[in-house]
Every structure is written in structure tokens, then in C-alpha cells.
Fold Serpentine Receptor, class AB (Class A-like).
Amino acid sequence: MSDCEQMTDMTTSLWLRLSLFVNLGITIISFPVLLTALHYINSQQLFHRNTRIQIKVHIFALLVHSTGRFALHSLDLINYFSNTGCDALPDFYRCLVVRGLYNFGMALAAMCSTSLVIERAIALHYNSTYEMCGRGFGVLLGFLQLFLAFAFLFKLYFDASFTPVPNVTLYYCQTLASGHGSVWTINAPLYAVMIAQCVCRLAFWYIGVQTKRKRNTQKLQTLSTRYTLEQGIRSIKALNMFINANCFVFFFFSFIGTSLHFNSSKMSRPTYFALVEVIHFIPTYGILLSIYIYFSLKKLDSKQKTSLTKSMQMDPSRYLIEFKKQIG
């Protein structure tokens, strides 16, 4: 088939159009949900300030990905319905920008688990003084996420072309590797993400176990230490689903993505690109996770208010006894 005939197959593919339409609709829905989640996390005090910084960086990453995805899908659909054949070939530099936003947001979102594990580990180790820890440490961890994301992208784009390649036709906006690249240019970073997510999940579980153990066994705890450990336990409970979802999503699409890349030669171009967009369900993940975290925090906040109300209704002498137990 000629380039024009292959591009006609792309523009008229039912599955590719359906994939772009569905993902575009989900992406549009994700914007108000993520912005609401960003405002909610910023206004709540249930997490330590440094924990909130890591979550806000994660939401920012999802917004960047959604922005790139909105531009990618909307411009492609307009192009497919208004042009055909070689007239529908995408502009190289437009693809470079929108796919760059797409990939950057996805890479940055995948690094949140690492920074949260480090933040919670430091909070556990320095439990007696961590409550007084300033935002500088949280900002530093935010930059760590950026560094890891750029390291991922460096490998991903190491063999990529930043100018149109002679005798190479770009049928769809993708990370275009040069002739000396290999399938491992894409798959190696994805395998690294898979391993990192598994390590982070195990580390977060261990931190949770150690936080509970220290809370139950440490003697002569100051009020600051007890508060930090209690807050750590609450944070781990609230973030447990966050870490699980982050681990599952990025492990899943890394595993499926590598399998898809290895078998790309066995399927048509439209089918391959339609599946690529389906497995990268980051906006869907952002919507579902935001809703779950919101209701989890509301439930946790309700429990705290109920506990506080019961404490206020306690007999004063009994309250004094409990207070002495806490500080002793």
C-alpha cells in the first residue's frame, strides 16, 4: 500500500475513531474532577504538608497528561473527518509537542509512589520532630519526581527524532525512534517502572507495619511524637488505595504496553494505535482515584469528629486519667 492508502485506512478506521472519541470524552470529564481534587487536597489538613505536596504534584501530572491528550485526540479527529489520504498526515512538530505533554504527564504521575514512600519513611524515622518539618523537604521530593520523570523520558527519547526523518512517514503522533533505535528504547523504561512500582508497594506496606509497631510499643512518647505517629497511621490508611492504584495502573499498562510493542508487527496500524490509547487510561485512573480519595477522607474526617465529640462528652476526671496515660 502507498503512504496515502495507509493514511486513508487510519482516517477511516472505526476502532481508531471510537478509541479517540471515548478517550477524548473521558479526558474532558477529568479536568473538572482533577481541579476539584487539587482544591480539596490543598484545603484539607488531614495530611502532613509534605504529603500534600506530593499528591498535588501527582494531580498536576495528570492535568498535564490530560492537556496533551485533549489536544492530541481532538486535533486528530478533526483531521480525520476533514481530510483523507496524504492530506491527513499529521504535522511532525504538532505531534512532537502534544505527545511530549502526553508522555511527560504520564511519566511524572508514575513517580509519585517513590516520593510518597520516601516521605513516609522519613516521617517514621524522625517521628519525634517530623511534625515541625517545613515545606522545603516536600518541595525537594517534588523535584525528585521531576528528576525521575525526566530520566524516564531521556531513555524514551534517546533515539527519538526531533526533526522530520527522510523516507519515514509519520501516520500517527507517536515517539518516533530513529533507525538505530530498537523496541527496547520504549520497553526498557517501562520495565523499570514496573519494578519500581512493585518495590514501592512493598516498602509502603513495611512502613505501615513499622508505624503501627512503633505507635504501640514506644515508651515515654511526647505529644508531638504521638501525634506524628497517629497522623502517619491515618495517612497510610488513606493513601493505601492511592499507592495500590498507582502501582496497579502503571504496572498494568507497562506490562501490557511492552507486550503490545513486541507484537505491533502482527496487527494493522489503526488497531495498534487504538489499543495504545485504550491501555493508557490515565484520565480514567485520575477520575476514579479522585472520587475514592475524596470519600475516604470524608469518612476519616467523620470518624475524627465523632471521636472528638465523645472525648468532649467524657467525664472530666476520666478525661484527666486518659490524658495522663497519653503523656505517660
Remarks:
- Residues 223-262 form the longest helix (40 residues).
- The chain is about 80% helix and 0% strand.
- The radius of gyration is 24 Å.
